[in-house]
Amino acid sequence: MQGKENKKKSFFSIPWVQTITASLICILLGLLIGFIVLLIIKPENAVEGISKVLKNFWNYNAKRQPKYFGQTLVKTVPLLMCSMSVLFAYKVGLFNIGVAGQYVIGAGASLYCALGLGLPWWVCLLAAVVFGALWGSIPGILKAYRNVNEVISGIMLNWIGLYLINTILTQVKNPTGKDTYTVASQNPSALIPSLGLNSWFGNEKTVTIAIPLAIIIAVAVWVLLSKTRLGYELKATGLNKNAAMYCGMREKFNIILTTAIAGALAALGAAMLFLTDSMQWECTQSSVPAMGFNGIAAAFLGGLNPIGAIFSSYFIQHITEGGAQVTTLGYFSQISDFISSFIIYLCAFVLFFRGIMSRKPGDRAGRSKKGGKQA
Amino acid sequence: MTTLISYTIFFASVLMLVALGGCFSEHSGVINLGLEGVMVFGALGGALGMRYLANMPPFMMVVCCMLMAVLFGMVYSLLLAVAAINFKADQTLVGTAMNLLGTAGATVIVKALNMAADPNNTSSEIVYVQAKKYFMVNILGLEISYLMFAAVVLLVISYLVLYRTRFGLRLQACGEHPQAAASVGINVFKMRYAGVLISGFLGGLGGLMYILGGVSQWKFEVGVAGFGFLSLAVMIFGQWKPLRIAAVALLFGLFRSLSNTYNAFPFLVNLNLPGSVYNMLPYIVSLVVLALTSKNSHAPKAEGIPYDKGMR
């Protein structure tokens, strides 16, 4: 039992230590690159700039801190749900790049139900889940029955979803601008209730039960994946479709179910953001929202673990919000987009970092990657 | 009608160039999902050239801008090459990161340059009104950029290189069965680097070409609006074969140009469809086409799998 001996030898060969260390390396390298960029642009303000990015709400005085902390949390919710969607699919061997489109569909379904049909908030959430699941299952069906690579079909569906939702939501657009109406002005019953939570966050109106709900869902996803039979079957299908089939698992059904759940998660995340009036949908946007792609970042940075994703998505949202505050120093908010996209790039090396930490003679299992993707 | 034709040719040549880039990369065994980012960086290189070299003689400037675009695209594609070939990283993840990094990085660079020139200018735009004219030539009432001729030449070269040279055949061997290729003395790592760098070359040039269409300034925050992804669909539908890719690019270019020109056709206006339908059309078509053709795909067999000597 060589493996067991090695585990005792080194602290760094414990899997979760490796995961966290690798993620921290990515974050530190990403921040370092960001700092260098700040140095190049305007050397005298670089230290203050990077500290503003990292401090986010601590940049404000103590009285306003809870309010801005609340705002960051509100926007973390959809990011967490998107990363949940990505990691769920990834555990089953699918790269859910369509998460951005599923997020768009969730926003569209929930806002149309809220503004166009005047339905209460829980119906709007349900609508987002249903349409997200349906939209999400398209790449699954194409993959299971037509052998279409889910990455390519996901990308196509992102753009189709974007134009579709832009068209649909134009019907509930505020005529004075590009954005949809606020939910509060048209149908207050569609706002997700706060149940007093906002009093903890300086009465920030957008703080709602969506925040604890998202954490509960993250834990539920963890339980589903690691403690249930369904989770086991899904993971087995992801590891080897044919083997799963010979074990009597419905491999086609499992693939479709996975993509449907992933789609529902991302769409629910969008609904949990837009039904708080934290932001409105801009009906003329011409690029797929970055939220979905940041979800990919959060999933990998969190070591593909739902609990880790809670922290990583908060971190990414934290530096994104912090990045919006460096404009006064002669920088611009895209700095944090740059840092977080660089962190995603570094996440690709996570396996390599882990490999260094647990280098054992004769062990190849950790290094061989999952198989090729057929288009 | 002429606008439809000129748009179609324009979109088709961009799609074809970038798809050919993807084709080289995949034949070497590396999936280049980051073509969108490569295009953005190629566009950045070209736009910077047009901004800073505008005083050169026209011919020299055009050549230099093309070289800049190619260089930027190739350097940027090294990000993929290093991660995927040396570090055996997940190519899908790297590609996704490169697309995000492309837009974010180009925006940061352009904004920094703009603000250095004028502290009040916080836009991410590069303006190249004068320089653009040097790229354009008027043939039979159609405004065509010289790059489109370059695209046709590159198509012929790509075909010849892939099927008629030792290099091309060896490249394909690395995408089909790298271990077998290695066993007869081919250096798989070098070949894959070559494949990815060629995709950077063609993708970068495609990016420059894309920002030369119609407009005379480019806002780098918007990236290239999914053209890199559309090119991948063109490549797959083209079954990784240059000539088929060219034909498919024409078809996709036609669909894509309808969204710009459908107003000019009475029978399309009479259908009374919202404009966004035409925006969706190329994507819907590619999805349907993929569903119909993916069952017997001719994808390189080893694409996306990091090369491991020990798997022989």
Index terms:
heterodimer, A: 375 residues, mainly alpha, ABC transporter involved in vitamin B12 uptake, BtuC, 16 helices, disordered N terminus, B: 312 residues, two-stranded antiparallel ribbon, two-stranded antiparallel sheet, 13 helices, 4 strands, 4% strand
Topology:
The complex is a heterodimer of chains A (375) and B (312).
Chain A: H1 2-9, H2 15-41, H3 46-55, H4 65-91, H5 99-116, H6 121-146, H7 150-170, H8 183-186, H9 210-227, H10 229-239, H11 241-246, H12 251-274, H13 290-301, H14 306-323, H15 334-347, H16 350-357
Chain B: H1 2-27, H2 35-52, H3 58-86, H4 91-117, E1 125-127, H5 129-135, E2 136-139, E3 142-145, H6 146-164, H7 166-176, H8 178-183, H9 188-211, E4 217-219, H10 227-237, H11 242-261, H12 266-270, H13 275-293
Antiparallel strand pairs in B: 1-4, 2-3
Account of the protein in words:
The complex is a heterodimer of chains A (375) and B (312). Chain A is mainly alpha-helical. Chain A has 16 helices and no strands. In chain A, helix 4 (65-91) packs across helix 14 (306-323). The model of chain A is unreliable at 1-7 and 361-375 (pLDDT under 50). Helices cover 71% and strands 4% of the residues of chain B. Chain B has helices spanning 2-27, 35-52, 58-86, 91-117, 129-135, 146-164, 166-176, 178-183, 188-211, 227-237, 242-261, 266-270, 275-293, and strands spanning 125-127, 136-139, 142-145, 217-219. In chain B, a hairpin with a 2-residue loop joins strand 2 and strand 3 (142-145). Chain B has one domain (2-311): Orthogonal Bundle (ABC transporter involved in vitamin B12 uptake, BtuC), CATH 1.10.3470. Chain B is mostly helical. In chain B, helix 3 runs antiparallel to helix 4 (91-117) and helix 10 (227-237) runs parallel beside helix 13.
